[in-house]
Hints:
With 215 residues, this protein is an alpha/beta fold. It has ten helices and six strands; from the N terminus they run E-H-E-H-E-H-E-H-E-H-E-H-H-H-H-H. The chain has helices spanning 11-22, 39-46, 64-74, 89-98, 110-121, 129-149, 154-164, 169-176, 180-194, 199-208, and strands at 2-7, 27-33, 52-55, 79-84, 102-105, 126-127. It has a six-stranded parallel β-sheet with strand order 2-1-3-4-5-6, with helices on both faces. Helix 4 links the parallel strand 4 (79-84) and strand 5 (102-105).
Amino acid sequence: MINLxxxxxxxxxxxGLRAMFExxxxxxxxxxxxxxxxxxxxATQLWPxxxxxxxxxxxxxxxxxxxxxxxxxxxxxxxxxxxxSYDNSEYVLGLLNAGARGYALKDEPRATLISAIRIIxxxxxxxxxxxxxxxxxxxxxxxxxRDRLLDLxxxxxxxxxxxxxxxxxxxxxxxxxxxxETVKNHLRNIYSKLGLTNRYQAIVxxxxxxxxxxx
Length: 215
């Protein structure tokens, strides 16, 4: 028997998912969660009495990436399937990297969603074809960005990583013990080598390439 926990803030959606999944003889919904702020506590207290947490990552009152990461750190055998209408590449990648076992879109056929649940319950990963193509494109872009980092000197990479975490030029100057003008020169070189035009683009590149990370 596959026991599910469904987390979605819309009652109609939860009712529809329950009806769809429980029409299968081997699937049972053991708990519904309506508040994003309750997800971590309910999941960790109820585990291991369920197989898969079906999570709408667009619920209010919680950070989906942080919540998925925290649940995975609590017990990395907890299987989480994201069920969403949102297919932004950065968003998908963040949730998968945080520990989600699968990502499906709400508009997928009933049979596809049921298959996804079974696949994840068996310990495998699932991505809808559309999400898989997004993920592959994102991974290719990540590899390309990391390759482009090789065009930068070690010092330029240090400067870019500090730009990524929000330091201003004076803070970078103080931290690296170099002059303010030297920092500006490094930034000009970084922009030129990477084809960037402003600090915002530099911040995005720093995170996208993995050079900067949220602590």
